[in-house]
Amino acid sequence: MAPGRWRQGRRFLRALLLVALLGPAACFSSSFYSPGEPRSSVRVLCGSNWSLVLQGQWMLEFYAPWCPACQQIEATWESFARESERLGITVGKVDVTQEPGLSGRFFVTTLPTIYHANDGVFRRYRGSRTLEDLQGYILERKWEAVEPVAGWKSPSSIMMHGMAGLFHFSGWIRQIHNYLTGTLGVHVWISYAIFILATLLIGLLLGLVLVLISDCLCPAKSKHSAEMPEAITKENAENAALEEPQEAAELSADEAADAKDLSEGEDAANSSADESEEDLALGKESGGEEAEDLSEQPLAESETESTVRQRKSQGAEKEL
Protein backbone atom coordinates (compact mmCIF):
# COMPACT_ATOMS: atom_id res chain seq x y z
CA MET A 1 0.00 0.00 0.00
CA ALA A 2 2.77 2.43 0.87
CA PRO A 3 4.62 2.21 -2.49
CA GLY A 4 1.33 2.66 -4.38
CA ARG A 5 0.45 5.78 -2.42
CA TRP A 6 3.94 7.13 -2.92
CA ARG A 7 3.59 6.70 -6.69
CA GLN A 8 0.21 8.43 -6.69
CA GLY A 9 1.70 11.32 -4.69
CA ARG A 10 4.55 11.67 -7.17
CA ARG A 11 2.13 11.61 -10.09
CA PHE A 12 -0.02 14.27 -8.39
CA LEU A 13 2.96 16.59 -7.87
CA ARG A 14 4.01 16.06 -11.47
CA ALA A 15 0.49 16.96 -12.59
CA LEU A 16 0.62 20.19 -10.58
CA LEU A 17 3.82 21.18 -12.33
CA LEU A 18 2.29 20.40 -15.72
CA VAL A 19 -0.77 22.48 -14.90
CA ALA A 20 1.41 25.40 -13.82
CA LEU A 21 3.26 25.26 -17.13
CA LEU A 22 0.20 24.51 -19.24
CA GLY A 23 -0.50 28.09 -20.38
CA PRO A 24 2.81 28.87 -22.13
CA ALA A 25 3.14 25.28 -23.38
CA ALA A 26 -0.30 25.37 -24.96
CA CYS A 27 0.54 28.68 -26.63
CA PHE A 28 3.72 27.36 -28.21
CA SER A 29 2.27 23.99 -29.16
CA SER A 30 -0.63 25.69 -30.97
CA SER A 31 1.86 27.66 -33.08
CA PHE A 32 3.49 24.53 -34.44
CA TYR A 33 2.26 22.96 -37.66
CA SER A 34 3.05 19.73 -39.46
CA PRO A 35 5.12 19.88 -42.69
CA GLY A 36 2.29 18.35 -44.72
CA GLU A 37 -0.24 21.08 -43.81
CA PRO A 38 -0.22 24.71 -45.05
CA ARG A 39 0.88 27.22 -42.45
CA SER A 40 -1.98 29.25 -40.94
CA SER A 41 -1.92 33.03 -41.26
CA VAL A 42 -3.85 33.43 -37.99
CA ARG A 43 -1.69 34.47 -35.04
CA VAL A 44 -2.35 32.37 -31.94
CA LEU A 45 -2.34 34.39 -28.73
CA CYS A 46 -1.96 33.19 -25.17
CA GLY A 47 -1.19 34.55 -21.72
CA SER A 48 2.49 35.15 -22.51
CA ASN A 49 2.12 37.16 -25.73
CA TRP A 50 -1.33 38.77 -25.53
CA SER A 51 0.28 42.21 -24.98
CA LEU A 52 1.12 42.25 -28.72
CA VAL A 53 -2.50 43.32 -29.26
CA LEU A 54 -1.70 46.67 -27.59
CA GLN A 55 0.42 47.70 -30.59
CA GLY A 56 -0.86 48.15 -34.14
CA GLN A 57 -4.25 47.19 -35.57
CA TRP A 58 -5.71 43.76 -34.79
CA MET A 59 -8.80 41.65 -35.33
CA LEU A 60 -9.03 39.06 -32.57
CA GLU A 61 -11.41 36.12 -32.31
CA PHE A 62 -12.24 34.18 -29.13
CA TYR A 63 -13.44 30.69 -29.93
CA ALA A 64 -13.79 27.16 -28.54
CA PRO A 65 -13.22 23.92 -30.51
CA TRP A 66 -16.60 22.53 -29.48
CA CYS A 67 -18.55 25.68 -30.51
CA PRO A 68 -20.63 25.11 -33.74
CA ALA A 69 -20.71 28.83 -34.63
CA CYS A 70 -16.94 29.02 -34.24
CA GLN A 71 -16.53 26.03 -36.55
CA GLN A 72 -18.69 27.71 -39.19
CA ILE A 73 -16.54 30.84 -39.43
CA GLU A 74 -13.19 29.01 -39.16
CA ALA A 75 -12.63 28.98 -42.96
CA THR A 76 -13.78 32.61 -43.27
CA TRP A 77 -11.39 33.67 -40.53
CA GLU A 78 -8.51 31.92 -42.29
CA SER A 79 -9.32 33.69 -45.56
CA PHE A 80 -9.56 36.99 -43.71
CA ALA A 81 -6.12 36.35 -42.18
CA ARG A 82 -4.59 35.73 -45.63
CA GLU A 83 -5.76 39.24 -46.64
CA SER A 84 -4.28 40.80 -43.49
CA GLU A 85 -1.13 42.10 -45.21
CA ARG A 86 -3.19 43.92 -47.84
CA LEU A 87 -5.49 45.34 -45.17
CA GLY A 88 -2.59 46.39 -42.92
CA ILE A 89 -3.79 44.47 -39.87
CA THR A 90 -2.94 41.36 -37.86
CA VAL A 91 -5.53 38.61 -37.43
CA GLY A 92 -5.39 36.52 -34.26
CA LYS A 93 -7.40 34.02 -32.28
CA VAL A 94 -7.63 32.76 -28.69
CA ASP A 95 -8.83 29.33 -27.58
CA VAL A 96 -10.84 30.02 -24.40
CA THR A 97 -10.56 26.40 -23.29
CA GLN A 98 -6.78 26.74 -23.16
CA GLU A 99 -6.64 30.40 -22.08
CA PRO A 100 -9.30 31.07 -19.41
CA GLY A 101 -7.22 34.00 -18.15
CA LEU A 102 -7.49 35.82 -21.49
CA SER A 103 -11.22 35.12 -21.73
CA GLY A 104 -11.61 36.73 -18.30
CA ARG A 105 -9.39 39.67 -19.24
CA PHE A 106 -11.60 40.42 -22.27
CA PHE A 107 -14.75 39.38 -20.33
CA VAL A 108 -15.88 36.94 -23.01
CA THR A 109 -19.43 35.68 -22.34
CA THR A 110 -20.51 34.53 -25.82
CA LEU A 111 -18.78 32.57 -28.57
CA PRO A 112 -17.48 33.51 -30.98
CA THR A 113 -16.48 37.00 -29.79
CA ILE A 114 -14.51 39.32 -32.07
CA TYR A 115 -12.61 42.41 -30.98
CA HIS A 116 -10.98 45.16 -33.02
CA ALA A 117 -7.88 46.74 -31.44
CA ASN A 118 -6.04 49.83 -32.60
CA ASP A 119 -2.99 50.81 -30.49
CA GLY A 120 -4.57 49.52 -27.28
CA VAL A 121 -8.09 50.90 -27.92
CA PHE A 122 -10.57 48.01 -28.08
CA ARG A 123 -13.95 47.87 -29.82
CA ARG A 124 -16.43 45.00 -29.94
CA TYR A 125 -17.26 43.82 -33.47
CA ARG A 126 -20.97 43.06 -33.75
CA GLY A 127 -21.42 42.96 -37.53
CA SER A 128 -21.86 40.11 -39.95
CA ARG A 129 -19.17 37.42 -40.01
CA THR A 130 -18.86 37.17 -43.77
CA LEU A 131 -15.54 37.87 -45.46
CA GLU A 132 -16.87 40.93 -47.32
CA ASP A 133 -18.22 42.55 -44.16
CA LEU A 134 -15.00 41.89 -42.25
CA GLN A 135 -12.90 43.44 -45.02
CA GLY A 136 -15.28 46.41 -45.35
CA TYR A 137 -15.06 47.00 -41.61
CA ILE A 138 -11.33 47.63 -42.03
CA LEU A 139 -11.18 49.25 -45.48
CA GLU A 140 -14.07 51.66 -44.86
CA ARG A 141 -12.89 52.33 -41.28
CA LYS A 142 -16.29 51.50 -39.86
CA TRP A 143 -14.67 50.83 -36.52
CA GLU A 144 -14.31 54.58 -35.97
CA ALA A 145 -18.10 54.86 -35.56
CA VAL A 146 -18.12 52.20 -32.83
CA GLU A 147 -17.83 53.29 -29.21
CA PRO A 148 -14.64 51.92 -27.65
CA VAL A 149 -14.57 49.81 -24.51
CA ALA A 150 -14.61 51.86 -21.30
CA GLY A 151 -11.27 52.43 -19.61
CA TRP A 152 -12.09 50.40 -16.51
CA LYS A 153 -13.17 47.45 -18.72
CA SER A 154 -10.12 47.65 -20.97
CA PRO A 155 -8.05 44.42 -20.99
CA SER A 156 -5.02 46.39 -19.83
CA SER A 157 -6.79 47.91 -16.77
CA ILE A 158 -6.14 46.86 -13.19
CA MET A 159 -9.67 45.52 -12.75
CA MET A 160 -9.39 43.21 -15.76
CA HIS A 161 -6.00 42.03 -14.52
CA GLY A 162 -7.80 40.79 -11.42
CA MET A 163 -10.55 39.24 -13.53
CA ALA A 164 -7.94 37.41 -15.59
CA GLY A 165 -6.39 36.03 -12.41
CA LEU A 166 -9.77 34.73 -11.21
CA PHE A 167 -10.51 33.03 -14.53
CA HIS A 168 -7.05 31.52 -14.67
CA PHE A 169 -7.39 30.23 -11.10
CA SER A 170 -10.76 28.65 -11.89
CA GLY A 171 -9.27 26.94 -14.97
CA TRP A 172 -6.38 25.67 -12.88
CA ILE A 173 -8.81 24.20 -10.31
CA ARG A 174 -10.84 22.54 -13.07
CA GLN A 175 -7.71 20.93 -14.54
CA ILE A 176 -6.68 19.60 -11.14
CA HIS A 177 -10.17 18.20 -10.65
CA ASN A 178 -10.07 16.51 -14.04
CA TYR A 179 -6.66 15.02 -13.25
CA LEU A 180 -7.82 13.69 -9.86
CA THR A 181 -11.00 12.14 -11.23
CA GLY A 182 -9.72 11.04 -14.65
CA THR A 183 -6.06 10.11 -14.31
CA LEU A 184 -5.87 9.05 -10.65
CA GLY A 185 -9.39 7.61 -10.55
CA VAL A 186 -10.42 9.52 -7.41
CA HIS A 187 -14.14 9.67 -6.75
CA VAL A 188 -15.83 12.98 -7.59
CA TRP A 189 -17.02 13.61 -4.03
CA ILE A 190 -13.56 12.89 -2.64
CA SER A 191 -12.19 15.50 -5.05
CA TYR A 192 -14.79 17.99 -3.82
CA ALA A 193 -13.86 17.21 -0.20
CA ILE A 194 -10.19 17.85 -1.02
CA PHE A 195 -11.02 21.26 -2.46
CA ILE A 196 -13.24 22.11 0.54
CA LEU A 197 -10.46 21.24 2.99
CA ALA A 198 -7.95 23.20 0.94
CA THR A 199 -10.29 26.21 0.98
CA LEU A 200 -10.67 26.00 4.77
CA LEU A 201 -6.91 25.70 5.31
CA ILE A 202 -6.21 28.64 3.01
CA GLY A 203 -8.84 30.70 4.88
CA LEU A 204 -7.26 29.84 8.24
CA LEU A 205 -3.80 30.77 6.97
CA LEU A 206 -5.05 34.07 5.59
CA GLY A 207 -6.80 34.82 8.87
CA LEU A 208 -3.60 34.07 10.79
CA VAL A 209 -1.63 36.36 8.50
CA LEU A 210 -4.17 39.15 9.01
CA VAL A 211 -3.98 38.73 12.80
CA LEU A 212 -0.19 38.92 12.71
CA ILE A 213 -0.30 42.03 10.53
CA SER A 214 -2.82 43.70 12.85
CA ASP A 215 -0.65 42.86 15.90
CA CYS A 216 2.37 44.40 14.19
CA LEU A 217 0.50 47.55 13.18
CA CYS A 218 -1.47 47.95 16.43
CA PRO A 219 0.46 46.16 19.22
CA ALA A 220 -1.43 45.22 22.38
CA LYS A 221 -0.76 47.15 25.63
CA SER A 222 1.68 45.55 28.09
CA LYS A 223 0.72 44.43 31.62
CA HIS A 224 2.69 47.27 33.21
CA SER A 225 0.96 49.87 31.05
CA ALA A 226 -2.39 48.28 31.92
CA GLU A 227 -1.64 48.49 35.69
CA MET A 228 -0.61 52.14 35.52
CA PRO A 229 -4.12 53.47 34.83
CA GLU A 230 -5.46 51.43 37.78
CA ALA A 231 -2.88 52.97 40.15
CA ILE A 232 -3.66 56.42 38.82
CA THR A 233 -7.38 55.93 39.37
CA LYS A 234 -6.77 54.74 42.96
CA GLU A 235 -4.63 57.78 43.70
CA ASN A 236 -7.22 60.07 42.23
CA ALA A 237 -9.91 58.44 44.39
CA GLU A 238 -7.83 58.94 47.55
CA ASN A 239 -7.18 62.58 46.72
CA ALA A 240 -10.85 63.10 46.10
CA ALA A 241 -11.71 61.50 49.46
CA LEU A 242 -9.26 63.84 51.24
CA GLU A 243 -10.53 66.89 49.45
CA GLU A 244 -14.20 66.22 50.24
CA PRO A 245 -14.07 67.28 54.01
CA GLN A 246 -12.16 70.45 53.11
CA GLU A 247 -14.68 71.30 50.44
CA ALA A 248 -17.54 70.62 52.89
CA ALA A 249 -15.96 72.96 55.51
CA GLU A 250 -15.43 75.66 52.91
CA LEU A 251 -19.01 75.27 51.75
CA SER A 252 -20.34 75.58 55.35
CA ALA A 253 -18.25 78.74 55.93
CA ASP A 254 -19.50 80.20 52.68
CA GLU A 255 -23.08 79.38 53.66
CA ALA A 256 -22.66 81.05 57.07
CA ALA A 257 -21.22 84.17 55.43
CA ASP A 258 -24.10 84.22 52.99
CA ALA A 259 -26.63 83.90 55.83
CA LYS A 260 -24.96 86.76 57.70
CA ASP A 261 -25.07 88.94 54.61
CA LEU A 262 -28.72 88.09 54.15
CA SER A 263 -29.58 89.06 57.77
CA GLU A 264 -27.72 92.34 57.46
CA GLY A 265 -29.53 93.05 54.23
CA GLU A 266 -32.87 92.36 55.92
CA ASP A 267 -32.02 94.71 58.81
CA ALA A 268 -31.04 97.46 56.42
CA ALA A 269 -34.26 96.94 54.50
CA ASN A 270 -36.31 97.11 57.70
CA SER A 271 -34.58 100.33 58.85
CA SER A 272 -35.12 101.96 55.46
CA ALA A 273 -38.78 100.95 55.62
CA ASP A 274 -39.16 102.58 59.09
CA GLU A 275 -37.52 105.77 57.90
CA SER A 276 -39.82 105.92 54.90
CA GLU A 277 -42.85 105.52 57.19
CA GLU A 278 -41.66 108.41 59.42
CA ASP A 279 -41.16 110.62 56.39
CA LEU A 280 -44.66 109.80 55.23
CA ALA A 281 -46.09 110.76 58.67
CA LEU A 282 -44.22 114.05 58.72
CA GLY A 283 -45.40 114.80 55.22
CA LYS A 284 -48.98 114.23 56.28
CA GLU A 285 -48.65 116.63 59.25
CA SER A 286 -47.13 119.38 57.13
CA GLY A 287 -49.84 118.91 54.59
CA GLY A 288 -52.52 119.34 57.25
CA GLU A 289 -50.99 122.58 58.47
CA GLU A 290 -50.76 123.95 54.96
CA ALA A 291 -54.42 123.07 54.42
CA GLU A 292 -55.40 124.92 57.60
CA ASP A 293 -53.43 127.99 56.48
CA LEU A 294 -55.08 127.89 53.14
CA SER A 295 -58.56 127.64 54.78
CA GLU A 296 -57.81 130.57 57.10
CA GLN A 297 -56.76 132.88 54.28
CA PRO A 298 -60.28 133.16 52.71
CA LEU A 299 -61.76 133.90 56.14
CA ALA A 300 -59.38 136.79 56.69
CA GLU A 301 -60.11 138.22 53.29
CA SER A 302 -63.89 138.05 53.91
CA GLU A 303 -63.45 139.86 57.27
CA THR A 304 -61.46 142.70 55.70
CA GLU A 305 -64.09 143.17 53.03
CA SER A 306 -66.90 143.43 55.64
CA THR A 307 -64.93 145.96 57.67
CA VAL A 308 -64.33 148.11 54.60
CA ARG A 309 -68.03 148.09 53.80
CA GLN A 310 -68.95 149.08 57.34
CA ARG A 311 -66.52 151.99 57.20
CA LYS A 312 -67.93 153.19 53.91
CA SER A 313 -71.50 153.06 55.28
CA GLN A 314 -70.50 154.98 58.41
CA GLY A 315 -68.79 157.69 56.31
CA ALA A 316 -71.87 158.10 54.16
CA GLU A 317 -74.08 158.52 57.21
CA LYS A 318 -71.83 161.19 58.59
CA GLU A 319 -71.99 163.22 55.42
CA LEU A 320 -75.76 163.17 55.55
Task: Give an overview of the whole structure.
- This protein has 10 helices and 5 strands; from the N terminus they run ααββαααβαββαααα.
- The protein is of the alpha/beta class and 320 residues long.
- It has a 5-stranded mixed sheet with strand order 1-3-2-4-5.
- Strand 4 and strand 5 form a beta hairpin.
Percent helix, as a range, is 55-70%
Number of strands: 5
Main sheet record: 5 strands, mixed
Name the assembly state: single chain
Tertiary shape: elongated
C-alpha Rg (nearest Å):
57 Å
Order of helices and strands: HHEEHHHEHEEHHHH
Termini separation: 188 Å
Features:
320 residues, alpha/beta, 5-stranded mixed β-sheet, 10 helices, 5 strands, elongated
Chain-wise SSE layout:
Layout (H helix, E strand, L loop, with lengths): L1 H19 L1 H10 L11 E2 L12 E7 L4 H5 L1 H9 L1 H4 L2 E6 L4 H6 L7 E6 L2 E5 L5 H9 L18 H26 L4 H30 L5 H97 L1
Parallel strand pairs: 1-3, 2-3
Antiparallel strand pairs: 2-4, 4-5
